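User: Show me a protein chain along with its predicted structure.
Assistant: Here is one chain, sequence first, then structure tokens.
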Amino acid sequence: MTLRVRQSGDRRTQTVKSQASERGVAANRREWEWRISQDEPDVGRLEKIRALAMIATAIKDRLQPVFVTDILRTTRLLHLEGNTVAEVAIDEGSIQAGLAREQVNELELELKSGHIEPVYRLAAELQVVAPLWISSEIKRRVAGIYAPARPRADTSGRCRSWGGSCKPRLHFARFSAQRWGI
């Protein structure tokens, strides 16, 4: 289970995510969100949700920050075949835990409505043209806190084929221009 407070402009959102199911690559988990006014989590919000009440009691007055992210997130909705809607999120920035710091360059696809198959097809298309891999282990490797869940692939050759850039934003822009003319 994860608990975070995300700031976007003047708005702060507290999110709790349950542990993902272990079925397949696509993460399937419950989420709860609240708009809050401070940077610190509001554990009282969790106490009002039956599924979270025991956890709220266990963590109350015991929470400590584990890491801090400084991420620029760009999102777009994609309308895929079969009335499927997916969100693409491109994250660029860094994660810091104590003195450890790691750069973040990620592209994330999230099914919003419809069927998962068109999203998998899109992910496979992106994987062919850019140094990406399909993973459900997003953000597990946080600034060296966790052991790497998957070794990083050597993408140097694929980066050179795209002008030396391993930036998801650039790859997705080029891919979108080729696929949809945008």
